[in-house]
Amino acid sequence: MSKKDLFDDTTMTFGEHLEALRFHLWKAIVGLVIGTVAAFFFSERVIIAIQRPVTEAMIRAFNKTPDAVDKSLLESFKDWYASLSSKSAVSSEVEKKADPAMVLPLDAREIAARLHDLAPESYPLPPEDAKPAIINLSLENTEFGKLIERMRGESLLPRTDGPDEAFMIYMKVSMIVGVIISSPWILYQLWLFIGAGLYSHERKYVYTYFPMSVGLFFGGASLCFFIVLPIVLRFLFGFNDWLQLRPEMKMQTWITFALMVSVMFGVSFQLPLVMLFLERISLVSIKLYREKRRHAILIIAFLSMILTPSDPVSMMLMMLPLCVLYELGIFLCARGAGANRSPFEAQPA
Predict the structure, then answer these.
(1) Residues forming beta bridges with residue 136, ordered by sequence position
(2) What is the Cα–Cα distance from 252 to 165, expressed in whole angstroms?
(3) Dihedral angle sign, alpha carbons of residues 316, 317, 322, 325
(4) What whole-number percentage of the chain has pLDDT above 70?
(5) Is the pLDDT of residue 59 over 90?
(6) Would you list the DSSP string of 153-211?
(7) 100 band by pLDDT with thresholds 50, 70 and 90
(8) Cα(326)–Cα(306) distance, rounded to whole angstroms?
(9) How far is it, in rounded angstroms, from Cα 318 to Cα 323?
(10) Which burial class, exposed, middle or buried, applies to 341 when counting CB atoms under 10 A from its CB (0-12, 13-18, 19+)?
(11) Nearest-angstrom CA–CA distance, 5 and 9
């Protein structure tokens, strides 16, 4: 029976490898340009969405009534603060929640004294033994009250330093969103280039694992943005509140922080796919994965410390899912055990 050498279909010269690299690289660049142009038309919504976690964290942590306020003037209120957009009615007998910053407490004795100074004939001087009579003057729906609300809201938003920073942020986000949009196409071209250097029976893994690679990347990035970042911000802002510090959030800094951490999560979530791919091409065995589990956890902890900010919360939030994904990688390898074979074994014709 005739036999076929695996190297017949996989041998490529150095020049052919360079030509394949150039071909797939140009196709990836074209896809990136198309994705960036498309992202330019809706990056505004993306920027607003990126601001949401840090803005909500700032509101929760710092949108509070200052401790310097005289609490005796606010005895009629049930709560210190309802919400940033609360519109509670204010009166001398308040039963609803109200925002103390939107109330001006006045002593009726002082008002009567000022009126007496202005027109003694019309307004008599209040008795010296008169009891305090607090009048709560609402600033709701007044120009001054609207100014206070606007200033408080703007103080919690990320800021820009220069007149051109907003434009540069828009361009930067458009490029990053363009990369995300075109990432399936770019990854596909990368896989095709890698597949050109693989044996014929290994090339099928490119098409099998490519959808899994894209899903793991977006799954890790989504987990980071929607779950990890709010928890990390709550932890970090807690230290600012504890030390009585107020952070000035720059939009440029926040976007870099949020996107880079999300990308790191997406890349790290490729772990089970990398494990499975290495096992399929006979570079690493399932037995080695199981025997070196403790070493793998140590490496995962080290990588989590490097790929995340300096706080321990974000490190643990990356480390724990990666440990689970490591076990998932072992499970996937064991499920297809025996499917791979040595590339040096002769294949039937």
Answers:
(1) 105
(2) 8
(3) positive
(4) 76
(5) no
(6) HHTTS-B-SSTTHHHHHHHHHHHHHHHHHHHHHHHHHHHHHHHHTS-TTTTHHHHHHHH
(7) low
(8) 18
(9) 9
(10) exposed
(11) 8
Please list, in sequence order, all residues whose beta carbon lies within 8 angstroms of the beta carbon of residue 104, skipping any fewer than 6 positions away.
136, 137, 138, 139
Contact 285, 250 (CB under 8 A): no
Nearest to 155 by CA among 43, 81, 248: 248
Report the distance separating Cα 258 and Cα 246, nearest Å: 19
Residue 212: half-sphere exposure toward Cβ, Cα within 13 Å: 17
How far apart are the C-alpha atoms of 195 and 191, rounded to whole Å? 6
Query: For residue 278, which of 346, 325, 333 has the smallest C-alpha distance?
Result: 333
Quick one: CA dihedral 47, 52, 57, 63, positive or negative? positive
Q: Rounded to a whole number, what is the distance in angstroms from the first to the last CA of the chain? A: 8
Q: Is the dihedral of CA 270, 271, 274, 275 positive or negative?
A: negative
pLDDT digits 0-9 by tens, 245-291: 777 788 888 888 888 888 889 889 999 988 888 887 788 888 899 98
Q: CA dihedral defined by 307, 310, 312, 314, rounded to 10 degrees?
A: -50
Asked whether the beta carbons of 280 and 339 are under 8 A apart, the reply is yes
The CA-atom distances, in angstroms, between 164 and each of 118, 161, 169, 194, 252 are 53, 9, 9, 41, 12
Q: Helical H runs in the chain?
A: 7-10, 14-39, 43-62, 108-118, 143-154, 165-196, 204-223, 229-242, 251-268, 271-280, 286-291, 293-307, 312-335
pLDDT attached to residue 345: 47
Question: Phi then psi for 108, rounded to 5 degrees?
Answer: -60, -30
Q: Give the pair of three-digit tokens for residue 211.
A: 């959808």
Residue 98's SS3 state is coil
Structural tokens at position 297? 């956890």
